[in-house]
Write a structure and sequence with these properties.
The chain has eleven helices and 15 strands. The protein is of the alpha+beta class. The strands form three sheets. Strands 1, 2, 3, 4, 5, 6, 7, 8 and 9 form a nine-stranded antiparallel β-sheet that branches.
């Protein structure tokens, strides 16, 4: 008996009593595969088990783990036993995990790898990635509770219901599978066309608003109301980058950063002019990722892309102030031009704080302060640092 248990890879300390032995290549007539992933380890509570490396299949009724190294070593968990799911993020030396909290083991259950367990949850460790997508599919499956829609004759009482029961096989089973497949296909097509209709309707609204703005701009006697401006800006903000550069489409390393730099430059072409020719990297990061939708760029990749501007002869420059503030500025805007405009702004106002300068020039406060400090360092401005805060004045002590 001990040899059999050892061969199966379980021990008396492994108490995964909610799982039952199963067949990896045999699905019931009512089952559909929702997700499939490899490189998954199972924990019993916080303890490692011998179910160390396998593929994990999610159906609408069961969770099926199949051992990668040993044939015919498969276990399954009925989704009807799942109470809730929680995510555990990845760390430097640990993989992302999904915590599966379970009802108690049902009485009279089928044979499994353990007899009892003090734990109320198991962990699924996704060592090859893909945890987020699988977790979402898992959440969707347990929220739909398809096992409750089975005929009463195919259900057992209580929350410990076995998720799948045998149905008639043969021609009838094949016909049912085909009907179900056609039904799912029809639903997907109908949903796709509904989404397309909604998109076309929204595009029509945008065209109508754009035409209204064009006609009013041409007729200078008619002003544009604030409500129309807000509405138009909201549509502009919803527009993003159609084909964002990703590692999957453009590889990794220098090639990826070069293509990302070109797309970033194209995106910033008009934006940076409206911002006075200079933007903080933080603001660029937020706006660029907003336009990319779900294909977000990391801060590190954004910095590496910005560093490619000069080599690619793109009319933008990546600059770092002495304080460490990072900016992207137009190459048409020289340091002398920035220094001159900053000094003139302070001279016109007699004195300015960073906040006042930012309000007048429509730039970020951090960038406003850096411009004032740069002008001070060049001898064009001087400061008054008091209880009221830091204020800059024209340097009248400067010898011409």
């Amino acid at each position: 008996m001990y040899d059999v248990i050892k061969h199966l890879g379980c021990s008396w300390n492994q108490k995964m009593d909610r799982f039952v032995w199963a067949s990896s290549n045999k699905l019931e007539d009512v089952e559909r595969v929702l997700a499939h992933i490899t490189g998954v380890r199972i924990y019993d509570g916080e303890n490692k088990t011998h179910f160390d490396n396998g593929s994990l299949m999610l159906t609408n009724f069961r969770l099926i783990w199949d051992d990668t190294n040993q044939q015919d070593r498969t276990i399954a968990l009925p989704l009807a036993l799942v109470v809730k799911l929680e995510e555990e993020s990845a760390g430097l030396f640990r993989s992302a995990k999904t915590l599966v909290f379970l009802h108690r083991a049902p009485d009279g259950r089928e044979p499994g790898p353990a007899f009892s367990s003090p734990n109320n949850h198991v962990k699924l460790s996704f060592r090859s990635g893909g945890q987020s997508e699988f977790h979402q599919a898992f959440l969707s499956a347990i929220s739909k509770k398809e096992w409750n829609s089975l005929p009463k004759s195919q259900q057992k009482s209580g929350p410990q219901t076995s998720a799948v029961q045998h149905k008639h096989a043969g021609i009838g089973g094949i016909q049912r599978k085909m009907e179900e497949k056609y039904r799912d296909t029809d639903q997907s097509i109908n949903k796709a066309f509904k989404d397309l209709d909604a998109l076309m309707e929204k595009a029509k609204e945008m065209v109508d608003i754009a035409e209204k703005f064009c006609s009013k701009l041409q007729d200078k006697q008619v002003s544009i109301t604030d409500d129309e401006t807000v509405e138009f800006k909201s549509y502009l903000l919803s527009m993003g980058i159609a084909n964002p550069v990703t590692r999957e489409t453009h590889g990794t390393g220098v090639t990826y950063h070069e293509e990302l730099a070109k797309q970033l430059a194209s995106f910033l072409k008009d934006v940076i002019e409206k911002e006075g020719g200079v933007m903080t990297l933080t603001e660029v990061y937020c706006r660029f990722n907003r336009a990319r939708g779900m294909e977000l760029v990391s801060p590190e990749d954004l910095v590496n892309a910005a560093k490619q501007f000069e080599r690619l002869k793109i009319p933008l420059r990546f600059h770092q102030f002495e304080s460490g503030v990072l900016v992207i500025q137009s190459s048409l805007l020289s340091e002398a031009d920035i220094l001159k405009s900053t000094t003139e702004m302070v001279e016109m106002s007699a004195s300015l704080t960073s906040e006042e300068f930012a309000q007048k020039t429509k730039v970020a406060v951090a960038l406003a302060k850096e411009r004032l400090l740069s002008a001070e360092k060049a001898g064009k401005l001087c400061r008054d640092d008091s209880l009221e805060g830091l204020r800059f004045y024209p340097n009248k002590f400067l010898i011409a």
